[in-house]
Specification:
This protein has 901 residues and is α+β, with helices and mostly antiparallel strands. It contains 25 helices and 32 strands. A nine-stranded mixed sheet has the order 1-2-8-9-10-11-7-6-3. Strand 1 and strand 2 form a beta hairpin. Helix 8 crosses helix 9, helix 11 crosses helix 13 and helix 24 runs antiparallel to helix 25. The protein is globular.
Length: 901
C-alpha cells in the first residue's frame, strides 16, 4: 500500500483526519513545511519548517527545554503515574521473544503485545482498556548506528499507550489531549515547543492517520489511529479501531537531561563506570557539538561514514580528540547497549546461536567482544551485567530472577568467541587486498563467524555496509509454515470433537462427505487428528482401516483406502493400544521439558516435539550437548514427578486470561490460533497450552527413560525417550542385550564391569602387539611393493586391492615405500564394511609431478565417493566395488598423461 498516496489523501482533508479539539482550544495552526511540504501543527506563528528542517533541531542537547530532570527509570515513573491517574491500567512488559506470533521472532513494537493471528486476520486482545505498558523492543536492522549516532539502540523501551474506542476507551481527541498534557504537565515542556506532524501508518491490510509529536526536532512519540482496512478508495472502517501511541522512553529521558547522547542518561551508572574504567576525558563541550551535528546530519547523507565525516568537519574535531574521546566512547556506548539487549533476550528465553533470532544475539555479543579487543579494554562483563540489572530491576523486577542464567550464557558465548579467534586471524590474512561485498561478508559470518567489525578492525574493509545488518536480520526471521494439501470445505459444518469430551473408543457417526474418494468427513469423531507433534489415531470405520487423520480448520478428515458412502451411518473404533501409548508419550513430553528446564536453566524451551506409539522425541533450546550426568538428572526429576502421581488437569481459558494467569511459558508448543486456550496443567510443575491427549495422573506414565541425546543444531538438543509399556520393553531389551554380553564374556552381572575392563585391557594389549608387528613387517612389505611396482617415466607406481589388512597396515607400508624411494607413489584400495577406503602416498620427488591428494580425489570420484589431501598424503573413500579395477586403470592413465607417456 502506497503510504504517500494515503498521506496525500488524508492531508487533503485535515478536518476529517487530523484536526482534534486540542488544536482549536490551544490555537495550533496548520502549516506546510517550506522545505519538504509536509503538514504540521504549531503554536509558533514564525515557524515555517517542520522539525526535520528547523534551525532548533536537536538544540535541546546541552540546553534541555525543561527544568525537570528524569533519567531512564525516573522518566517511566512519570509516564506511568500520569496515565494511571488518567484512567489507564499499567501493564507489565511482555517478553521480548514474541512467543504468541509465528511470523515474528522478537517483539518489535508495543502494539505487538496485543496482536493475535487467527487465520489470515490479526485481532487485538487487550488485558485492559485503556492501558499503558513499558515494552522493551528489539530491532537489529540498524546495528551499525548503535553507539555512533547518539540515539540508535538495539533494544529500547516503547511506551505503549493503547485504547479501543468503546465505553471505556477513547479516540483521537482524548489521545492527543493526554499526550499534550503528559509533555506539559508531567515533563514541564512549554506548549510552544511542541509540534505535531501529520503522517499515516499502513500494515497488515490496515491503515490510518497518525500524529507524530516533536520537541526541538526530537520525535518523542507517534499516535497512530488504525481505522481502515482494504485499499484506499475501496476501504471500509474496522470493526475494532485501535489507538497505537508509541513513545520512546529513552527520548523522554534525553529531552529532560539534554546530555550529548541518549546513551548518557539511559544506562544508569554503567556509562560513567565504563568511562572511568577506560579513562576517557569526556569534554562535554566537544561532545555536545559533535553529537548535535551527528543528529542533524543523519537525514542528509545516505552513508554513516559520510555522517561522521560531516560532523568531524563541522566541529573541527582533531584526530587526537577523535581517537582519544569519540572512538572509545562509541565503543563504550555499543557495549552498554548490546549487553542490555542480551540481558533482556536471555532472561526471556532466547539463546545466541546460528539459527533464527539467535543469529542477532550472537552477532551483538561478538560485536561486544570485538570492541573490547579493538580498544584493548579490560572489562568484567559479569560486573556490567550486575550493574545493568541493579539499575533496571526497579522497572523490570523479573530480571533479578535470571541474573545467574544471563551470566552463564554470556560466559559460554565469550569462550566460543575466544576459541574462534585463531581461525578468524587466518581467514582475515587470506582476505587482504580483496574487495568484499555485503553477500561476501554475510557468508563469512555464517560459515566462519567472522563479523564485519572484525574485518574493519583488521583493515580488510574500510566501513561496515549499511545494508549488512538489515540483510542478515531478514535472512533469519522465523520460518514460514509449509503449506499443506488444500481442500474445498465450504458449506461443511464443524466436526464435533469427541476426543475433547467423553472421548469414547467406540462411537457411531454420520458420513457428511467423501473427498477424492479417500478422505472421509464425519459429523462427529473421537479419532485424534495429527497436530502439535502428536501422531494421529488409527482404527476402523465400518471395519475398514483409518490410515491418517488430519484437521483443517474445525473439520476433521479421515484418510482411508475403502471409504463408506456419503450419508451413511457408520460404526467407528479407535486403536486403544496405540492411543494409550501416544498419550503417555505426549504427557511425558511435558514432564521432560519442565524437568530439563529445572536441571539446565530457564533458557530451556520446547523447540519441537514428536509423539508416536513407540517413542517420543523432544527438541529443547540449550547451548551445548548434554553429558551423561545431566541426562541422568533430567531423567531422575521426570521420574520423581511420575512417582508423585500428580493430577493432570485440563481446562479451557480465554486466551488473554490464560496469558495473564500463567504467563507466556504456556506457548511451549507454538502459537495458539484460537480464542479459547486449552491449558494442560501438572499442578505447579508444568503449565502449557496444548491440544493433545493426556493421562489423568503422572503415575499412569509408569516409567520415563531417556534413550538418546544429541545436539542437532546450534542451540538445540534432541532428547528421545520412552514411557509406559514402551519404557518397559526398552528396559527388557537392554537386559537381554546385557545377558548376551555377559555370556560372551563368560562372566555374570556382578562381575560384568571387571570382566569388561579385563577384555578391554586384553584388546589394548593386542592392538599394541599388532602395531609392533606391523612396524616389523612394513619394511619387508614395502620392499615387495617396490619390486612389484610399475615404472612410468621417472615415477614408480604400486597399487593393491586388499580385503584383509586395514588402513593402519597400509599407512605404515606407504610411509616406508616413499622413504625408500622418493619417486614412488603407493596406492591402496581397502575393502571394508561394504565400502572402500583409499590411501595414497607420494614421495618427495613424485609429489612434484603428481600430488597424492589429487590422485585420491580422482579415484574416489570413480568409486562414487570423495577424498583429498596434500602433496604427500591423501585419503578418501567410495562405495562402488564393481569399479575397483577401472579406478586403478584410470589412475595409471592419469599418471602416464602427467609424465607424457
Amino acid at each position: 500500500m502506497d503510504k504517500e498516496e494515503i498521506l496525500a489523501k488524508f492531508s487533503s482533508e485535515p478536518d476529517r483526519y487530523y484536526k482534534v479539539k486540542l488544536f482549536a482550544e490551544q490555537g495550533f495552526e496548520r502549516k506546510s513545511c517550506s522545505v519538504c511540504k509536509r503538514f504540521f501543527w504549531t503554536l509558533e506563528s514564525q515557524r515555517k519548517t517542520c522539525p526535520d528542517h528547523s534551525e532548533d533541531t536537536y538544540s535541546f542537547i546541552g540546553n534541555p527545554p525543561t527544568k525537570k530532570r528524569f533519567d531512564y527509570t525516573e522518566a517511566w515513573k512519570q509516564v506511568e503515574s500520569f496515565f494511571v491517574k488518567n484512567g489507564h491500567t499499567s501493564v507489565s512488559r511482555y517478553p521480548v521473544v514474541c512467543r504468541w506470533r509465528d511470523d515474528l521472532y522478537f517483539t518489535i513494537a508495543s502494539i505487538v503485545d496485543f496482536q493475535r493471528v487467527m487465520g489470515s486476520k490479526v485481532v487485538f486482545e487487550f488485558p485492559a482498556n485503556p492501558l499503558v505498558v513499558p515494552q522493551t523492543c528489539l530491532r537489529f536492522k540498524d546495528l551499525e548506528n548503535v553507539g555512533v549516532t547518539g540515539r540508535h539502540f538495539s533494544s529500547f523501551c516503547m511506551i505503549g499507550q493503547h485504547s479501543i474506542p468503546n465505553g471505556n476507551g477513547y479516540w483521537k481527541d482524548e489521545c492527543v489531549d493526554l499526550d499534550f498534557r503528559l509533555l506539559t504537565e508531567s515533563f514541564g515542556i512549554s506548549k510552544e515547543e511542541i509540534v505535531f506532524v501529520e503522517d499515516v501508518w499502513a500494515g497488515g491490510g490496515s491503515f490510518g492517520s497518525s500524529l507524530e509529536f516533536y520537541v526541538r526536532g526530537l520525535e518523542l512519540g507517534n499516535a497512530v489511529f488504525t481505522e481502515f482496512q482494504g485499499d484506499l478508495g475501496h476501504h471500509t472502517t474496522l470493526d475494532q479501531r485501535i489507538i497505537d501511541m508509541g513513545a520512546g522512553l529513552e527520548r523522554f529521558a534525553w529531552i529532560t537531561m539534554g546530555t550529548p547522547t541518549a546513551y548518557d542518561c539511559c544506562f544508569g551508572p554503567i556509562t560513567q563506570k565504563l568511562i572511568q574504567k577506560v579513562g576517557i576525558d569526556a569534554d562535554a563541550n566537544i561532545l555536545t557539538k559533535y553529537f548535535t551535528e551527528i543528529a542533524k546530519s543523519l537525514e542528509k547523507y545516505p552513508d554513516l561514514s559520510q555522517v561522521r565525516k560531516a560532523a568531524i568537519k563541522a566541529t573541527n574535531l582533531t584526530d587526537d580528540n577523535l581517537n582519544r574521546i569519540i572512538t572509545p566512547l562509541e565503543g563504550i556506548y555499543t557495549i552498554a547497549d548490546h549487553l542490555r539487549t542480551l540481558i533482556f533476550a536471555i532472561s526471556d528465553g532466547a539463546l545466541p546461536s546460528n539459527v533464527g533470532g539467535g543469529y542477532n544475539l550472537r552477532i551483538i555479543l561478538r560485536r561486544i567482544m570485538a570492541t573490547i579487543d579493538r580498544l584493548s579494554l579490560n572489562l568484567d562483563l559479569n560486573d556490567l551485567i550486575d550493574s545493568h540489572i541493579d539499575y533496571l530491576k526497579a522497572t523490570y523486577p523479573e530480571l533479578e530472577e535470571y541474573r545467574d542464567e544471563v551470566k552463564t550464557i554470556i560466559g559460554i558465548e565469550v569462550e566460543r568467541y575466544h576459541d574462534s579467534k585463531s581461525r578468524m586471524v587466518k581467514i582475515a590474512e587470506s582476505l587482504k587486498n580483496k574487495n568484499l561485498n555485503v553477500d561476501d561478508m554475510i557468508r563469512l559470518y555464517e560459515s566462519d563467524g567472522v563479523t564485519p567489525d572484525y574485518l574493519k578492525e583488521h583493515k580488510i574493509i574500510a566501513e561496515i555496509p549499511d545494508s549488512f545488518y538489515t540483510k542478515l536480520s531478514d535472512l533469519h526471521q522465523s520460518e514460514k509454515k509449509k503449506a499443506g494439501e488444500e481442500f474445498d470445505l465450504k458449506g461443511i459444518p464443524d466436526t464435533e470433537l469427541l476426543f475433547y469430551k467423553d472421548d469414547p473408543m467406540k462411537f457411531d457417526a454420520k458420513v457428511l462427505k467423501v473427498i477424492k474418494n479417500k478422505f472421509v468427513i464425519l459429523d462427529r469423531t473421537s479419532f485424534y487428528a495429527r497436530g502439535g507433534g502428536q501422531e494421529p489415531d488409527h482404527g476402523k470405520i465400518n471395519g475398514a482401516d483409518v490410515l491418517d487423520v488430519t484437521k483443517h480448520g474445525n473439520i476433521v478428515l479421515h484418510e482411508m483406502k475403502i471409504v463408506p458412502s456419503e450419508g451413511a451411518m457408520v460404526n467407528c473404533e479407535i486403536d486403544i493400544s496405540r492411543r494409550i501409548n501416544i498419550t503417555k508419550h505426549h504427557t511425558s513430553t511435558h514432564v521432560i521439558n519442565s524437568s530439563a528446564r529445572n536441571v539446565l536453566g530457564s533458557w530451556v524451551w520446547q523447540h519441537s516435539a514428536f509423539k508416536e506409539k513407540d517413542y517420543g522425541r523432544l527438541d529443547i533450546t540449550h547451548h551445548s550437548s548434554l553429558n551423561e550426568e545431566e541426562i541422568k538428572k533430567i531423567e531422575n526429576v521426570a521420574n520423581s514427578i511420575v512417582q508423585k502421581n500428580l493430577p493432570v488437569t485440563i481446562k479451557e481459558y480465554d486466551r488473554g486470561q490464560a496469558e495473564q494467569t500463567f504467563g507466556f511459558r504456556i506457548y511451549q508448543g507454538g502459537v495458539v490460533p484460537v480464542k479459547s486456550v486449552r491449558i494442560v496443567r501438572i499442578e505447579d510443575f508444568d503449565v502449557e497450552a496444548c491440544g493433545g491427549t493426556h493421562v489423568k495422573r503422572t503415575g499412569d506414565l509408569g516409567l520415563i527413560k531417556i534413550t538418546k541425546s544429541e545436539r542437532i543444531q546450534d542451540g538445540v538438543v534432541r532428547l528421545e525417550f520412552v514411557s509406559g509399556e514402551a519404557a518397559i520393553r526398552y528396559v527388557q531389551k537392554q537386559e537381554s542385550d546385557l545377558s548376551i554380553i555377559i555370556k560372551s564374556l563368560g562372566s555374570n552381572k556382578e562381575k560384568l564391569v571387571k570382566s569388561f575392563e579385563h577384555a578391554m585391557s586384553d584388546s589394548e594389549s593386542a592392538k599394541k602387539k599388532l602395531k609392533q608387528l606391523i612396524k616389523r613387517t612394513s619394511g619387508t612389505a614395502a620392499k615387495q611393493a617396490a619390486d612389484n611396482s610399475k615404472t612410468f617415466g621417472a615415477l614408480k607406481f604400486y597399487s593393491v586391492i586388499d580385503e584383509e589388512l586395514d588402513e593402519e597396515f597400509h599407512i605404515a607400508v606407504g610411509e616406508d615405500v616413499i622413504t625408500q624411494n622418493p619417486s614412488a607413489i603407493y596406492c591402496a584400495l581397502i575393502i571394508k564394511g561394504g565400502g572402500i577406503r583409499i590411501i595414497v602416498f607420494a614421495g618427495a620427488d613424485a609429489s612434484k609431478t603428481f600430488k597424492a591428494g589429487d590422485l585420491v580425489k580422482e579415484i574416489s570420484a570413480k568409486l562414487g565417493g570423495s577424498g583429498g589431501g596434500d602433496a604427500r598424503f591423501g585419503q578418501g573413500g567410495g562405495k562402488d566395488a564393481s569399479r575397483l579395477a577401472d579406478a586403478l586403470g584410470y589412475a595409471e592413465l592419469l599418471i602416464k598423461k602427467t609424465v607424457g607417456l
